[in-house]
Design a protein that fits this description.
Blueprint (H helix, E strand, L loop, with lengths): L1 H19 L4 E5 L2 E8 L13 H17 L6 H23 L10 E6 L8 H19 L4
Antiparallel strand pairs: 1-2, 2-3
Length: 145
Amino acid sequence: MGVVVVLLDQLTKHWALNRLDDGSVVDVVGSLRFNLAYNTGTAFSLGSGKGLGPWISVLAIVVVVGLSLGYTSRFRLGAVAAGLIAGGAIGNLADRAFRGDDGFLHGAVIDFVDLQWWPVFNLADAAIVVGAGLLVLASLRAPAP
């Protein structure tokens, strides 16, 4: 699941960079539009300019690996959740690592999904949020140790 998230995330970001780099906005339906943004903060542009982004991604990966070694690897829903979170974190970390001119881990995450009433985000952010929700659901459904 994580590999699929990383691949889809990077493909959609590649599309956004090629299609929206000139400042154009693509209206999709209702308030949904595609609008290119460079995020130097964490998820949903929180903490922009503080340099926390790469470390939040690394922390998310470490937490997911730790959880995967525990109960999530024994339950399909938990494993899917872990894959979504890890894939999203790796997708955004790849942007920070390789999409910047200021050196390794100083790049910006490519965001382009704009609801106009929520901060601009990307597929990796969505995977992390959905994965976190599924992880909570998996923990509620897991039998007590």
